[in-house]
Amino acid sequence: MYSEWASLSAQITANSCGAQCFSVLNKFPASAGREVVVSVVKQLGTNLGITQNAEPSHLVKDEEVKWCMDVICFGLSLPLQEHETIKDCVNVYCEWLTALHPQPRISVPKPICEDANLYARQIINHFHNLFVPRQGESADTIKRQAVLCHRVLRTLQQTAQISQLMDRQTWDTLLLFLLAINEILLAPPTVKDDVGDQLCERVLSVLFEVWLLACVRSFPSPSMWKTLQESCAMWRHRVALVDQWNRVNLALTARLLEFSYGPAFPQLKNADEDGQLIPIGMSNDCVAQTWYRFLRMIGNPTALCSPHIISKSSHFVQWALTHEKGAETHQHPCLQQLPQIFLNAMKGISSQVDAFLGLSKTSLIGLTGGGARNAITGSSSGSTTASSGTAASGTTATGGVASSASAIGGSAGGAGIPAGAGIPTGVGAGAGSGSAPAAAPTTPTSTSGPPSASSSINSLPLTSMGAGVELAVARPKCNSILHVFHEWLFEAAHIGGDTWRQNRKKQACEASKRPSSMIMEHRKGSISLSQPNSLNDPQSLPPTLTIDKYESGRAEAIGTLCKIFCAKKTGEEILPVYLARFYMALQQCLKITESRECDETLASILLHSSDLFRLDLDGINVLLPGFIAALEIVLPDKDLKLKTQSMVFNRTELRRSAINILLSIMVLPLHYQTLPIRDLTSETSEKMFTFIQLKSRLMNILMNALQVETDAQNTHMLLGGLLLCVQDAVTFEETELGGGGNASLSHNSSGVQHHETNLLSSDNAHALFVRATYLVCHRLISSWKTDLNVSLAALELLSGLARLHIRETDALECKRAVKWICDYICYQCSRPPPAHSKDLHSTIVAAFQCTAAWLMQHPYLLQDKDCLQTVLEVVELGISGTKSQSKGTDIPKFKDEKELKPASMRVRDAAENLLTIILEQVGYFPSECGPESISSLLDELALMKHCNSMVPAAAASSEQAIAKFKYFVTENSTILALLEEPLGNDQDPQPTVTLLIRGPFGRHAWTMQLRHLPRSKSGIKYHAVNPGRPIPMNDVTQRPDCEQKHFPDGVDKVQPCVADYSIPTIEQMREQYGTASIRELESMLENQSIHEKLAWAEADTSADSLSHAQECVPPAVCHEFHAARLFLSHFGFLGFETRNPHNPAEALGNPPQRPLIVLDTKSTAFAADLDRLDKLSARTHDTVYVFYVKSGQTSAHQIIGNMGEEQSASHDPHFATMLQTLGWPVQVAEHSGWTGFAHNSWSLKGTPEEPLKSTASELNYNGSQRVLYWADVSSEIAFVVPTTWNLRHNSDTSDGGSISSTDQIGSSNVWSRGEAESSSGLAKSKSRNLSLELDTNRRDAKEPVPPTRRKGNVTKPTLLAQAPAKIFLVWLESYEDYLNFPLEDLLAYTRTGEELHTLQLPRASDCHVIFVHSLLSGLLRVKLQGPPGRMSFATPLVDGMVLSRRVVGNLVRQTALNISRRRRLDNDNYQPPHVRRRLKVQDIVQKYKMDLSEAELLAHLFQRAI
Known about the structure:
The chain is α+β, with helices and mostly antiparallel strands. The protein has an eight-stranded mixed β-sheet. Strands 11-10-9-8-12-21 form a six-stranded antiparallel β-sheet. A hairpin with a 2-residue loop joins strand 10 (992-999) and strand 11. Helix 9 runs antiparallel to helix 10 (195-217), helix 30 (788-802) packs parallel to helix 32 (838-857) and helix 31 (811-829) packs antiparallel against helix 32 (838-857). The longest helix has 27 residues, at 1075-1101.
């Protein structure tokens, strides 16, 4: 860099020698000189004011001062035994140096004050004598010498800081002096505890700090810089050199970042004292120039790996020559430190790179034992870079660094620096840095704990730059950073690799051809860093310096390179030459050793390259085989052996990073299929792989990793990856192969086709399905059951597997899976009471939901007797808390005899839900109504329209329709609406009743007829015509006389029973009622008999008497029936026996109520309440909002504008495809399920909606006319793509204008159990309340009743305790835009109308966002963002996963559903839909029930409906 400039090394040598032979006392014997010094210095020392008051100096002439200085100069070179004298000499000179201070001490001689700079230069040169190491001194005297040296260094540093008088010459003298003493102390090989070893760090820090000061006051000339660089090369065997170099570099980098990138850029946090290294007043240009010069000061750090180069100096040669055994220069023991020094240098460079990338981790600097110095971790924060020579293409120089240093004049000396002295540097910011850079999303953390005082770095782990580390938004381009550091990093990454060895051999050959005379140049040779010594012979190296000992530094270098390349932004170009060198370096470093151990290099690569395969790096896939081999070592190994020297790795972090890499390459084999992967090194094709050959290896890594993983988060990620694999394989076989078997593509790594029968080695979809099911079920039961998150992820995965349609599904496998899930529920329920927590119950509820998913998808399982038995036993366990038969041989315990003690109410609700699904839905879903409704689409109005008696025009209002029905409630949870008129399509005069059943699980319509014959025979008319009168038989029969007996003969012998006495005798009646009443009764009887006789007589004489008998005619066929009464009677609803007090239903707190409650339907609000009940869906409902973000968009207005019709043409075409795979497009006007808006969901088809203007865009799913919809038996989900309409529409309806929003859920709070229980003593809440109290008494307060909220708001409309999860799906054109996604502003476009009922409006911090970014390869990269809750992240999508387009819709939908499910599980106050419906029914009962006695009830049945 300074090749044209002369070095000042000779001057340093001259000054050293000059100081030593300068004094005239050298001409006399040593004893004479010593006496002179002692007497003179003692006298001078007394004037200084140390022991007594200071006096003005008696020295008034130049000659006098010079004579004294001559003496002191000699005094400083005295042997250390004369410690006191030397100390006085030092004191005198230190006092005299205050002449340069603004206020000189009183004892400074006048001539010195008058020409301070001249004398100061001499004093500084004389001090050289003090620092010369004395041979053969004891440790104690060396310590004393060190104390004096410290004093001098402190004085010089202080003087340099506060002096206003120093001129350029004095500055140069001071810098050369500091270089000289460093030279004399540090250039010789290190000897422990000599004065050089003790002062090493101090002299270096003073040199660097004063040098930085000089850069502000009097910028050193290029010759000075060149001398500094040459000198540093001589001291590289000292650990402190690199430590101090790192310290200065990072301090300068911190300043460089401040002015290059502004305050918004993440700050580089250094230790406080390091922050003060940079003098106040250093201009930005000066910082940039100094930063670059200091960076290049120790030359190429890779020279540290060559002891031959480091030991080239004359001092080492001298040591080798004087060594008694004749050693080589590179065998000096002090060189053992080189691997550590190399590592420290690499860590320093790594910290700078981190700073430029804006990694907001605190950097801990200085790797020395200097007490106040900190140790370096592998990262720091801040970011920009200066590019030497050429800046990166497209990089703007914002720092405004002058291309020559001539602009920076010396401020004190005033002498300008020759033009062209500087290095042209451009501080390159990223392409977009013209504007103020956006703040990085994470704030830098401060250093925690005391700084490490040890000289090793073993205790500090290298922090992983996994998916979680945010880089600065305004970071420079990768090219810019590489322009500065590439040479060193690439060279360091190759150390010890094959190419490095080949280069060494080549250089050795060339060296052997040159003349072999070895010329030792004192200085020149030492700076030619990278040319190896012609005599270097690896064999002669001591075992501690072999090349593998440098592996820690190499690992740091390759890790840093990985970090740089992982910082690539979307669309950023990296020069091909850098990519090529990087791939070559990685290829070398990923070489697996024979022992198959994970060494530091491998660990460092895996830790820092988690993003490598998801950044569109050109040609990155050539590294795929290497990475897979590395993953095969790290992931499947339970006790991973790390072969480390100086670095410590956190195994969990390492595995996490490896899993991240695995998740980003899982889909590549099926994406590229038979495309070959070329080998970087060998030309031949024998080692060539195709992508599809790697598939089985990837699957094995995944399965084996899952088998041994112990960390919860890692397991969660692997489970997500597993479902991705199986889903991808299944979809691939369905679409690409037309559903055929995967035989043609099922290769293993050697390319041999597998036999389809061997499932475990095959990797087709069916085999993967079987392996995944088996593995996950097994691990769930054995080791995951105690961890909430892992259990949930495993159950989510099993639910996902259940939904896969695999042609050759094995019924036995599915049956085994269901059996295992049931066993899991049994195990969890049987845990001891202390283990019963909210988390445990959440896992049980999730397992019930998972079982339901398997049974719905595989209904044939219920045909299997064992399976049915297992499932129903578990349902019973959930509902009642015990099984009827705990063992197969036990006598079953009947329902009535069991005490109801469910594990918790949530578990009971989940089990009830499963039972209903088994009885009502398995094999029948979707019904005729389609998946959008599990309820009947008929209501009273619809039925009346079909009724014979109804005039069509009259069927206008629901009140009129409701009036035709009779309403009863049974079991306090089911409303029966009975219509006694036959519907218009039935001509048969039978007793017909039409029934609308509204229960917890929906609304169902049935029509029933009472028939005496089956329909097959009812075609024959059995109402016969009149058959005519039979012919009378006139023969009179003989009647035998016989005595009439009222009772059998033996009646008196029969023992009377209670029933016989139920009819009292006349005597008893007399006693009971008295004689008067009986008489009255007798007279009435007498009167009655008289009347009857008269009536008979009258009848005999009339024309209608039997004597005038008419022909018999059969009665007319009856067309009017009391069908409701018949139905209720036949179905057992009219049994009025008293209830059994031991009945478990009453034990739960239900009052002994009648089986039937009559509702009063005359109230006007009844229709509205029924409507509200119908609007409570029996399934959960969720909404996902889909946004499209074009590159660089940050405002909500722009993002919403993308969905306008004119914009949709410019979308990524894959976006539309993804939308189609999320759900089914439905017309809102005809849709009877959830629409994404509370006011028009669950309305019956054909209800008139307000007409909307038609919009033709195919992507218009904003909810005005169309939405995307998907549903299964237990959940509905709507995908809304908001446009500006959503904002307008939301503001219109949010005032309560929406139909159902006024009191959507009624006055009982259905989301918060606690409030219902505390605020109303009604029967409906009692049942739940008491059962919970039973729980708490029985099981050590296992699930306490939630604390109740204010009691005042019972009458107000309900407030949901927690808003449903807001889930956003965002398609990013540019990945970095996720940092600036305007979540808060977009919330206004995502209202459903339910927000009115929540205690708090949705906040941006509660939203879950799934970002999807399309890579150039056609694959999609996922980024998840969400609240930091315990269980907020659901599978199968995992942050950083790379998907194929085949599966994106399916996995996004599953993830959204699972996020919502988890949120509900975590919400204490959440109630399942069927519980909310049941409570609503109970609410209706309380409002409208008629308290009828049994007689009144029967009378009510005989009244006709209107």
